[in-house]
Amino acid sequence: MNPFNHFERKIQLEFKNKKLLENVFVHRSYLNENKRFPLPANEKLEFLGDSVLSLITSMYLYRFYPQLQEGEYTEIKSAIVRTESLAEAAKRVGIGDYLLLSKGQDREKGRSNKNILADTFEALIAAIFIDRGFNAAYSFVLKNLFDGRLEQIVDHKLYLSPKSRLQEYSQSRFKVTPTYEVVEERGPEHLRTYKIVVKIGAKRYATGLGNSKKEAEESAAKTVLAKLKIV
Asked: Which of 144, 132, 106 is nearest to 25 (CA)?
């Protein structure tokens, strides 16, 4: 009996090599307690999957967003393939239910660990690529990772940093550029904390904290975007 029947139905792909599919779910911690298990950890698949995902994203952006610049492609790619996005996609297809983990990892909620889920999702992309080819991997990523999310990132410029997004909004809405002012510095040189206020025109909108001025500015800008309910 194939233990992955339900999973294959869910992702609408049937693997020719069932052992390859099983290998996707083998976390290295599992092997510490199961020395004779015949399959290796999924780390090599994860490595390949990362490259395949990068190529898929690059091809998609090149095809559907020819008006954007190379730097924008890089920022968009970083936004869509970040750990949180991959982990959410992994949850949607039910990867956590099939993970082979050590008892300790299982107790520590490894099945919902973002890093483990994201890594396993990349391993799955690699396995699809090996077993079914590039087009199948491409279709899987479009359906289960992009699926409107990439369009939202591009359309609302969510790939930009909070500071860049606030600047665009401020210049469009108020015709001025936000200004940032350090209002407090605390701690020794190697553990300095900065408090920065952001103003649009003469109005103070929010403050932000960070261990660098840039981090504090981004924090302040993010708070303003939330207050203004800018997507």
From this structure: 106
Catalytic residue among 8, 14, 50, 88: 50
Tell me the pLDDT tens digit for each residue of 59-112: 999 999 999 989 889 988 988 888 989 999 999 999 999 999 999 999 999 999
**pTM for this model (two decimals):** 0.76
- For the purposes of burial, counting CB atoms within 10 Å of the CB of 16, is it exposed (0-12), middle (13-18) or buried (19 or more)? exposed
Q: Is 119 a catalytic residue?
A: no
Cα–Cα distance for residue pair 65/59, rounded to 1 Å: 10
* 2 within 8 A of 20, measured Cβ to Cβ: no
- Is 72 noted as a catalytic residue in this protein? no
- Options 46, 122, 217, 218, the catalytic residue: 122
Query: Tokens 């339900």 identify what position?
Result: 6
Q: SS3 sequence, the chain?
A: CCCCHHHHHHHCCCCCCHHHHHHHCECHHHHHHCCCCCCCCCHHHHHHHHHHHHHHHHHHHHHHCCCCCHHHHHHHHHHHCCHHHHHHHHHHHCHHHHCECCHHHHHCCHHHCHHHHHHHHHHHHHHHHHHHCHHHHHHHHHHHHHCCHHHHHHHCCCCCCHHHHHHHHHHHHCCCCCEEEEEEEECCHHHCEEEEEEEECCEEEEEEEECCHHHHHHHHHHHHHHHCCCC
